[in-house]
Write a structure and sequence with these properties.
about 110 residues; mainly alpha; 4 helices; about 65% helix
């Protein structure tokens, strides 16, 4: 049985009345990512020590992912489709690199 994460997020957001304007959702995602970044900065002593995820890392990463899925839902984006397309593009880019045909950062569009 496959779980449609985007559908689960949409249903829970509807039930909890979490819908907000896109700028507000973007700020929330930015805040969550910033918090994760600050945690890594602190734990690694600004990159001088190796990173070891703290116990709450999975929960906090899940909250960030939830925010991205909610943003996608509010803007009509099928996350599974665009992530799959991105993965396919990166795979093609890797093949180009192996063939010696480097074209820069893999997320650039042609």
């Amino acid at each position: 049985m496959t779980v449609d994460v985007q559908q689960v997020v949409a249903q829970s957001a509807d039930a909890a009345d979490l819908h907000a304007p896109v700028p507000t959702l973007l700020l929330e995602v930015q805040t969550l990512l910033g918090s994760l970044s600050a945690t890594v900065t602190t734990i690694t002593d600004r990159g001088r020590r190796p990173f070891r995820p703290p116990p709450d890392w999975p929960t906090r990463l899940g909250e960030l992912a939830y925010g991205v899925y909610l943003l996608a839902d509010q803007t009509g984006v099928d996350v599974t489709q665009v992530v799959t397309k991105t993965a396919d593009n990166l795979h093609a880019h890797a093949r180009q690199l192996q063939a010696g045909d480097e074209r820069g950062w893999p997320f650039e569009t042609s």
